[in-house]
Write a structure and sequence with these properties.
Layout lengths: L4 H7 L3 H11 L13 H20 L2 H7 L5 H15 L3 E12 L2 E12 L4 E13 L19 H10 L8 H10 L5 E13 L12 E5 L7 E3 L19 E5 L4 E4 L2 H5 L3
Parallel strand pairs: 3-4, 4-5, 5-8
Antiparallel strand pairs: 1-2, 2-3, 6-7, 7-8
Helix pairs in contact: 2-3, 2-5
Length: about 270
């Protein structure tokens, strides 16, 4: 049995290896989401892969080279998962970012088509990492928005569940998958990230999920501003502060400061 994720992160020194461990084993963004694996599934993956993570921490060059081209957070997160699938002998990556074009129209793309050797089946995985600020915890998705207020949790979840994860049900796409022997037997929605709540909030959308706080004031000096790729586990100091800035404290607390324009967009 391996370490818990917090204990393992405390042992790992390389920021990209830490991010890989977090990508694998952090909890689901939301509780009881359809098609999302249980958090025990992530912990099992971490246990199976922990010795490899420790080896990568000692010699992370291959992981760094794999992730170096990806500077956008969503692409970086996908690259971490792709490295894991290529590197772990339990899985065979059959297709990645596979665009589906029918009659000249792009219907969508499969993030990952995977052969799970342990379960002996083909699976379709859609993966994403998102960070949302909660303005009304009493509603179903908490009126959750990103630092870009047009980015809504409700829209993202609906798109992943009702479009991306149903792509194989399109007749022409399904026929293609059957012909190639790639029709998935199972689907997984891997949606990770962090929800940020007002400082006085005590009602949380997901008790097990990662969370931080948000507000308009600067945090105390123990909080360090993070570059965008530092939003997973920290350790990437940002010199130029944005008007909407994410911070992490030395003891692992998270805080996003927003500006008046963001607040006004909530009306």
């Amino acid at each position: 049995m391996g370490d818990s994720l917090p204990r393992l992160l405390a042992r790992l020194r390389d920021p990209v290896v830490r991010d890989l461990a977090w990508a694998l084993a952090s909890p689901n963004l939301l509780a009881a989401t359809p098609l999302a694996p249980g958090n025990d599934w992530y912990r099992t993956l971490l246990g199976q892969y922990q010795s490899r993570l420790l080896a990568l921490d000692a010699a992370p060059g291959i992981l760094h080279a794999h992730c170096r081209p990806y500077r956008r957070l969503g692409q970086y997160f996908e690259a971490l998962w792709r490295f894991f699938l290529l590197d772990h002998d339990r899985f065979q990556l059959l297709a990645y970012d596979w665009q589906q074009v029918v009659a000249g129209t792009t219907l969508g793309a499969f993030d990952f088509i995977v052969w799970d050797k342990q379960l002996q089946r083909i699976e379709h995985w859609e993966v994403a990492v998102k960070f949302y600020l909660i303005t009304n915890p009493g509603t179903a998705c908490g009126d959750a928005r990103g630092v870009n207020p047009r980015d809504r949790l409700r829209h993202k979840l609906e798109h992943m569940l009702h479009h991306q994860l149903r792509l194989s049900q399109h007749p022409q796409v399904g026929e293609r998958l059957h012909r190639l022997g790639l029709m998935p037997n199972n689907h997984r929605l891997i949606l990770k990230g962090r929800l940020y709540y007002p400082r006085s909030c005590r009602l949380f959308l997901c008790e097990q999920g990662e969370r931080g706080q948000w507000g308009t004031e600067l945090p105390d000096p123990s909080f360090e501003p993070q570059q965008k790729l530092g939003w997973l586990t920290g350790g990437r100091h940002c010199e130029r502060l944005a008007s909407r800035q994410n911070y992490r404290s030395g003891n692992g607390d998270w805080y996003i400061r927003v500006d008046r324009e963001w607040l006004d967009s909530q009306g």
